[in-house]
């Protein structure tokens, strides 16, 4: 049983032009954008259309393993400018949960509200 939901192309791997300052909340990507990026990356890796990926399906059921986790971490850093450790992927183990984690306010932002 595949928990895979077919459409957007995965962004090019141009690391310099895709970096986003994580300390500038206005420049950081939105939850929807990060979730779409994660879904697009998984679709590319799994060779399926993005709309076949259910963002609420646990990543291990989609076939994500430790090697894929490293690809997700490198992509988050290089393409989104967001630091991500493998441990965090395993702690937030759906595309939606991981996107929420990556777009959550930083401690300094949360304190200033």
What would you note in describing this structure?
The protein is mainly alpha-helical and 113 residues long. The protein is 49% helix and 0% strand. The protein is globular and about 35 Å long. It starts with 14 loop residues before the first helix and ends with a helix.
Q: Can I get a quick summary?
A:
The protein has 113 residues and is mainly alpha-helical.
Strand content: under 5%
Separate helix tally: 6
**Largest sheet geometry:** none
- Average pLDDT value? 80
Helix content: 40-55%
- The total of beta strands comes to 0
Cα-atom Rg, whole angstroms?
14 Å
Taking the alpha carbons of the first and last residues, their distance comes to: 44 Å
Protein traits:
113 residues, mainly alpha
Note the topology:
Elements: H1 15-18, H2 31-46, H3 66-80, H4 86-91, H5 95-103, H6 107-111
